[in-house]
Amino acid sequence: MKKRLAALTMALVMAGTLTACGGGSESASGGKGETSAADAASSEAAGTDAAGTDAAENDLGYEYGEDVTFHSDEPVQYTMMFSDHENYPMKDDWRIWSAIEEKANVTFKLTSVARTDYNAKVTAAVNSGSAPYIVPKIYDSKPYEDSGQIIAVSDWVQYMPNYQKQVKEWGMEEDLKQMLASDGKYYRLPGMWESVAGGYSLIIRKDVFEAAGVDMSKEAEWTWEDFYDALKKVQEHTGKDNIWSDQFQLGCAMNLAANVYGVKAGNSADGGDWGLQDGMKFDFEKNEFYFADTTEDYKEFLKYFNKLYKEGILDPETFTQDSQQAQAKFFRGDSYVLSSNYQILSDIQSQNKMQVEDADLYFMTTPSGPKGNLKVSSAAGRLENGIVITKNALDDLGEEGFIKMLRFIDWLWYSDEGHELTQWGVEGETYTKDDKGNITLNSDIYFNGFNPGASKQLNVDYGFGGGVFAYGGNVDIQLSKFTDAEKEWNERINANKVNQQLTPPVLADEMQKEDLNLIKVSLMDYVNTAALEFITGKRDIDKDWDSYVSDCESKGSTKYTDQVNEIFNDTKDILGM
Amino acid sequence: MKIKPSKGYRTFQVVNTILMILVIIITLYPFVYLVAQSFSSDVAVSSGRVTVFPIDFSLETYKYILRDNSFFKFYGNTIFYSVVGTAISVFGTAILAYPLSKSKLRLNKFFTPFVVFTMYFTGGMIPNYILVTQWLGLADSIWAVVLPGAISTFNLLLMKSFFTGLPEELEEAAAMDGMGVYGVFVKIILPLSKPILATMTLFYLVGMWNEWFGPFLYLESRDKWPIALWVRQLVEGANQVDIGSTAEASSVQATLKSATMVLTSLPIICVYPFVQKYFVQGMTMGAVKG
Known about the structure:
heterodimer, A: D-Maltodextrin-Binding Protein, domain 2, three-stranded antiparallel β-sheet, B: mainly alpha, MetI-like fold
């Protein structure tokens, strides 16, 4: 009896599941139909001039265009996801909302999600087909591409004059290829920087380094070996061990070094994948991918960190402690090196976190290595996180309304006016501008190192300068965000370091992605664990190297590389390589 | 005559006491640490100097939190969800557990496995999301927080076995005197079930108080957030690093995090001592008669 009941229950559940599946595939195929309609529409429109306000287009009910303020005659509201940052929790009465409404006559209906769980919510909302029209703050649209629920924006960008202007003037074509999916389209409107800046590097205690007799004037040309020599001097001078106790379980620093050693490394529990990824590097001479983490370069790379560890420079606790513990050591003056980005440094300085009298913090540029003195910033080059637009927008608004929304997005996220508004606020109210276009934040407002001690904060109290809107832009807007010290740091980088070549993307389709992933997960997990064992001396780099290489082999490193190269060869024409 | 405890027993008592004190210290320390942090200056906390007692005693953090309206809003939401949710859950569990405890009811054999099934298998996040937001139309509503998962299968089974343990004769006698099924349930069964009801209330209350995932998934406006969601954002934010050129690390001060946690866990800790009497009784009764 019991068995029969159980069988009945199972049958019911299965039937339920099947019906659910049926519903899903139906809507998915509906999605495909929409996309092809959009294709037709866009190819039709491609012949006409998309940019600029033609006289014929004046009856659209809104103004738009290159360097024209978007303004809708009728008030409109768009639904949008909002990634809420705990540093500046979202408020409904932020000035940014009313400022956007005043200029564009557009308001948002927001779904506000804590940024810590933002991706989970986006996944649920997008895959269930109930996501808001605009989903910003997306770093990777790949997980949503196969759902049929998001729009291939590359079919629609011709309607976005400011976006087009950025692509053309800054030569972004090659960068945009990074985002292509296997169908040769892209699904995310990325933030774009005119030039690369920022990123992670190392903070050091200049006072200690100089007291140890290190010449800091040549710092921007240092190799990692020079940095080792400097650390050695500091170690001898202070007579202390473990002078480098890093945060992010060394993942960040490993990635910084990996870039200039020509390898891939850095994946930590505290911060995620810094640069290890799938271990693939691209050989631009042979025009093919290779597995970088079994090469001689990689051996050199491991030897370097192993040396630091063996000689007591690198704190063994680095690999287990969390960021707070690492920072505490640095603040107390027990360690002298900390990997960080400029924001963390600004916070340390503006909140007076250093416990040591006269501590002089210096933000190094990332050292160079065997592969040259390269700029090591985010792996995506000049592209930033971006906006994904859901099919709901096209369905609900119709094609005309959809294009109108795109043009609004184009103005807010891609025009110079939009960048200035979302970053600095309203001229005369939160900032002033001189004849040369230099922006000065009002002295009673604090932002990221500007006006320390001011009573109000640009992001907390006004909503400007937040991560959802204020990113990307031309060099002027980029530099306007930097304090003099940060500007100096960027100039030091630009004067000494060269850009890295962009690795071509691997346009794997859904099945291929799955195949690759099956190999990647266990392979890279092994590589990362082995890296830490080699660095900490649990395994001997010379003696155990061959067994490490053959282990990688048996976990599929060659098979993976072959598959990647095969996909690359098949899609060369899409990439134009 | 007084029996002298044997030597072995006395040694056991000593060792046991020492062990228990150690356990108390281990479980208590995180709270002490949190409280100490919340009353210290941020500089002292971030340099790792605070251990047991506050250093540079300051009330600034609490003043800062209590000045912020959204804290009270979140707190109010949590109280509301907890009270409403617990009431619904306890009521729902009781009226489902009662019939299931009557093995002679005809469809019992069908429904019990049906209910138990949900303990081992779930639909998964996205089907649940579709069910709640689209089919039931509960997106951004308080019902999305309190209804899904209102009845926990584990609690249901606990309650069911408690009901099974009540003497059948009582019900029969009441029925003889002309009382209907609902009368028996309300006037006889429920008054006898105070221990298990108290236990259930505590379970559901704590669960609801700490619940963040449901609200996170189904709520859209920030105004409706419970405090647990905010605490999670504060705490998780510090562990999460965005890798990118516009990465914005969390700069929320450690003191703010601990003070928020102290304020949020305080009320629920206060409830415990009052319910404990019933709690032990309810748990063991359910367990023995299972």
